[in-house]
Amino acid sequence: MTPHHTTAPARRSAPRGGRPAVTWEQARATARDAVQPLPAVTLEPADALGHALAAPLAARTDLPPFDTSAMDGWAVAGPGPWRLEDRTLLAGTRPAPLRPGAAAPIATGARLPAGATAVLRREHGATDPATGTLHVRSAAPGAAPGADIRVQGYECRTGDPLLPAGATVTPAVLGLAAAAGHDRLRVHRRPTVELLVLGDELLTSGLPGDGRVRDALGPLLPPWLHALGAEVTGHHRVPDAAAPLTEAVRRSSADVVVTTGSTAAGPVDFLHRALRANGAELLVDSVAVRPGHPMLLAVMPGTGSRPARHLVGLPGNPLAAVAGLVTLAAPLLGRLGGRTPDAPHRARAAAALPGHPADTRLVPVRRAENGVTPLPYDGPAMLRGLARADHLAVLPPGGATEGEYVTVLPLPTG
Fold it and tell me: Which residue from 104, 140, 149, 215 has the least number of CB within 10 angstroms?
């Protein structure tokens, strides 16, 4: 395992302006509180997938809408044995009533006829063709009143709340909404994001060489942003120069611009200059977190009919950029999309998790039955540990001891 990174002396880095970096918790709260949910739209169910509900989802019908059979077998009226009726009850039909003492074959999901008191499972019954009767097999359970009947309204009644506003529309939600009678869904618009990848040294194909390296963030960030609820409308390379970056930020029409690199004070770090040229206000300018402390969040004023926009500046190192993504982009995009924040996940440390002396530390971990375990290759420029991780552990200053519970952030898997 590679050594865990701890930076000494134990002091928090300051941004370009010399102000103290905000804490990780403050940064996330600032990002979340910087915006309000985007307007609601009404969409066809298939188009609503991945959006957040803008209003509670209520049942428009009872579920089930009528008594149905939970099993293949026979609908029976009263105690057996029963006289077999010459008909089969299938789903999609409204059957005539069942006479007392009678039985009729029934399929799973078929509507129960009036007069039926139970369903006798196929494996529990036997018929006698000679007499035209049905009886319970020896040692099999009988057909107690209500047996294997899905009673009308068992899952919900008309008007019952099914899901709150802010819930994400998943495939299961689409199925529930359809079953409950919804043809369209009222959801918040997904925030649009334009991704600007900065760096003259980046290659998009081939092997690194001659001082140039492969772009890891270009492939990594768009699907991750989509998993966070964004609609990525643009993905562009921008050279390391002030004018092109200023112009790219100015002309973007996305709700949120996400940049990679140029957040510190190096010789080609022009993001602060570009933000000043666009009249932006810095809401966060450096966060007391490792890796990723030179991340930033800015708001650019609206002009005329053009609303205000936000910019999330991620560090250029891959793991540091991911830290910026979960710290600033995730709460910002979640609030814009109207999503209800997930409750914090807590997990036991299966081994000691070394931290930074003064700052929060985000560490790739893998969850197992005995807790979360740190992974090697967790430096700011590394992705090998992250590629094996399923969570990021949020470590307070000083880290966590074995057995201690820590906050973990689930990583998107697709």
Answer: 140
- The continuous run of DSSP H or E covering 331 comes out as helix 330-336
First to last CA, the chain: 27
Rounded CA-CA distance 253/277 in Å is 17
Amino acid at 236: H
Q: Per the structure block, which two tokens stand in for 273? A: 């200059």
DSSP code per residue over 214-270 = E-SHHHHHHHHHHHTT-EEEEEEEE-SSHHHHHHHHHH--SSEEEEES--SSSTT--
Q: Is 104 exposed, middle or buried (0-12, 13-18, 19+ CB in 10 A)?
A: buried
User: b vs e for 174-184, b when ≥16 Cβ sit within 10 Å of the residue's Cβ?
Assistant: bebbebbebee
Mean pLDDT of 82-103: 96
**Which residues have a Cβ under 8 Å from the Cβ of 366 and sit 6 or more positions away?**
372, 373, 375, 388, 389, 390, 391
20: preceding bond cis by omega (within 30 degrees): no
Q: Rounded to whole angstroms, how far apart are CA atoms 1 and 4?
A: 9
Report pLDDT digits (tens) over 40-88. 999 999 899 999 999 999 999 999 999 999 999 999 999 989 999 999 9
- Give the DSSP H/E element, type plus range, for residue 18: none
Rounded Cα–Cα distance for residues 52 and 340 (Å)? 8
CA dihedral (39, 43, 49, 55) in degrees, to 10, reads 50
Residue with tokens 């709700």: 255
Q: How many helices (H) and strands (E) does the chain have?
A: 9, 27
> How many CB atoms are located within 10 Å of the residue 129 CB?
7
